[in-house]
Amino acid sequence: MTDWTAGYVADIGYTFGYYTELNPLRVKLAFYNVGLRVPEFGTACELGFGQGISANIHAAASVTRWHGTDFNPSQAGFAQELAAVSGVDAQLFDDAFADFAKRPDLPEFDYIGIHGIWSWISDENREVIVDFIKRKLKVGGVLYISYNTLPGWGPFAPMRHLMTEHAEVIGAEGHGIINRINGALEFTEKLLATNPAYSRVNPQIVERITKLKGQNRHYLAHEYFNRDWHPMHFSTMAELLSSAKLGYACSAHYIDHIDGVNLSADQQSFLKEIPDAMFRETVRDFMVNQQFRRDYWVKGARRITTLEQTELLRSQRVMLVAHRPDVSLKVTGALGEATMAEAVYAPVLDLMADHKPRTVAQIEQAVKDKGVQFGSVIQVLMVLSGAGHVAPVQDETVIAKAKKHTDRLNAHLINKSRSSGDIIHLASPVTGGGVAVGRFQQLFLLAASHGKRQPAEWAALVWQLLSSQGQKIVKDGKPLESGEENLAELTSQAEEFAAKQLPIMKALQII
Q1: For residue range 457-492, what is the model confidence (pLDDT) as tens digits?
Q2: Cα–Cα distance between 254 and 86 in angstroms, integer?
Q3: Following DSSP, what letter does each residue of 356-420 receive, concatenated?
């Protein structure tokens, strides 16, 4: 019998995650920040879309026509269901990469996204993907790709091999992957308890195993227990993609653009002395002990002049998509947690606290009297975007066209939240992407759509749903037992949602 899984875990589904880096709209600020021209994104493709949450949100929330494939038919079926609900013309298949690459009905793409697949597939599939990119990515087109990276994963690679070996050799056949994962983790803990020389040389391994124990088993299955698992150096990736005529553009993780939170002064000086950009990027990975890269590549990079760069940056529209932080903003980079300068960040955050879209030029004009100049505004927006506080905003005509699709998709997802908390993102036509909205918050929106006006009414409806299914609120790790306790906690959460999140939901046109 042919194994259609090719060694990839398929007996349990992937998680219902959403990945903002896959949103093509995010390319602009990153590219303009490094002085590169950006194409218009009329067609896009996601390879290995999992449950299809990202693909469907991006298809519904934009006018970009999306294609994609995921070899798991159950996941592809769910993704197709969402596309049908929203009414978008997204072509989502369950083809293996080799079969998808041969489809005669595929257009050329302005954008191809690959998140969470590259490191977990065979060399043969990587060759198929590179050839697909070579043939199907337009000149000037952008590739987003994420992958496990060396040197960061180097110390853990032997332990990952041991865990998968245990699951394969010792794990009982027919007991399912989750039981085999639990068995492998238990075995690993017992091994580390003997204080082997391996863990003495690599003391961080104990902490990492402890973290693994607390993570979703579906995630662990796909992350660690596939047959193939290939972290690679940046230079290896560059060599592979060079055959598809791709060059490295920049990181898709905006915080990586801010040297001050990632590199010491000595490290920055050292890197500046390296003339080759590709080798410099490889060396940087050693400095930050990079474990996971999220990168943009481009087929034919075109530089823009300083004047064009400034004009394009000033024309970008952005908005605050999170509640304005009540305390000093903290951001985590490779150097650890850093507190952002209040004198620079507070004026921008205060201005944007009304959650209205503004161009960078409008922000610059409004804060210049506070001593915040153009260069600082750009850095503030890059940091806030990287931290998830700020998002790009689409043109009004695009927003209007997308809203009918996001309304349908969001209504469907909110309805699902009655029985499950698996999907915690909704689609915004304003940002062209997804916004994190937890299960209870979705249920509050459901209550509001049913005519309930007050937080106490929302809480009562939510508690009615939960109690009818025998579910209780968990607080501080313990379930609340009485109905009064559950209702009080839900009311408190509903009041906070009304004060802080609901205005944002309205500004994002989610409701």
Answers
A1: 999 999 999 999 999 898 888 888 899 999 999 999
A2: 30
A3: --EEHHHHHHHHGGGT--HHHHHHHHHHHHHTTSEEE---HHHHHHHHHHHHHHHHHHHHHTTT-
